[in-house]
């Protein structure tokens, strides 16, 4: 790989997969084991899997006492397999959140390796290696690898499917039945992971290519849909039939009607965003090397007549536009397009005949890198100070690492050394991410309420048990994951008082806002409630401080 030290470049070209796996681990492992379960999505997914493991029911999904009829079962099966493997090896168990993150880590690694494999066919070995490294360094993918949910695994399945579709498009005569089976199997896995999102990407790309190629589509025949679609259905229908019977159809009504269509028409769970959100947030989500895609955009569009460029643009543009049109916006939604974006950017960066970007755009790219790097460092400094009033060591390390990154990348961009800018940016992101994910966030104790609540119960509430514990003012899924599915979520302070009064050996946690109502109801019941401990923290999902008061009956 040019523009890098010669010994390292030779080693990278000789062992590219080893380099990429090592890079993924360097991005993902800091914080992977030390970050507690996060609210809300991660804890919901992990708790549903944990209850699946505890109950032995691998069809229905439940979180606490409620059915979770939102997402298909695929990620839960993958998480359950990871937990079983760790238990068999004696390395971890179902109380360890990192065991549920294993499919996300593997999804990141597979997506990066599949991007490299696809890129070798489309753009050549060196650009493929650069593109895969750029994908591994993306901020949004690094974050997803730390979260026990679907999106990193979905990225791997979509990349596998689109890689095989690209092979069919570029060389239909050489496309085999085995490759076709792999394409449909990848889509089947994607459907089990996140429903229609996985097939949506190749469907939109296929329609775009069909129109762009003036309705000539020899690649469509070699995909062998006549038996490929039945193969996909064979993979997904057994569980769909089972869940339909088990829930009497409620799963489909809620997953399709409430969850999916709710996101299309309105901002689900306060995640509304205007059209253009993903374009504006791309320099952050694709940090640090994503600015190369901005510099490459005009050149890539000019080469849209080339089959490889046309395929990659068909992968990106229609899917991107769909997500821009959907009301609910989250940064990871456009992640399935990132392999194609990085391949286009890397191919442009290594093309000696590339169209040079205007000087103002280069300066804008330098400014964007600097703003995002300093923004990460500022957040690492501000969050602990706002919550605790002091700084952990990692937060202080984030600033010099951010300055190092922006200097290295900014200089390379200013000199037109595009490959060097991307490579140095990805390399410098490793210590910056580690400073935040390993040495800052896990050490901001007040935001991790559930582990501290468990510690307080063990220390000050002898005899407590999940089935005899209720909590008000903090109905977060991380509480269930940490304490147990039998924990009772109580709506009001009066409910907490009645729960404590109605059974022996019970304990309640009452939030400060519900404390007066709890004491008033306890007095009306003639109950003497003894406060045994307090847990002060910060509920980041609601953006407010919280103190939980633990009570038992005298």
Q: Give the N-terminus to C-terminus distance in angstroms.
A: 72 Å
Which sheet architecture does the biggest sheet show?
5 strands, mixed
**Helix fraction bin:** 55-70%
Which structural class fits the helix and strand makeup?
Answer: alpha/beta
| Overall pLDDT score | 94
Number of helices: 25
- The strand order across the widest sheet is 4-3-5-7-6
Shape: globular
Instruction: Name the poorly predicted regions.
Output: none
Radius of gyration: 25 Å
Strand content: 5-15%
List how many beta strands DSSP finds: 7
Structural notes for this entry:
This protein has about 550 residues and is an alpha/beta fold. It is built from 25 helices and seven strands. A five-stranded mixed β-sheet has the order 4-3-5-7-6, with helices on both faces. A two-stranded antiparallel ribbon has the order 1-2. The longest helix has 30 residues, at about 360-390. The relative contact order is 0.10.
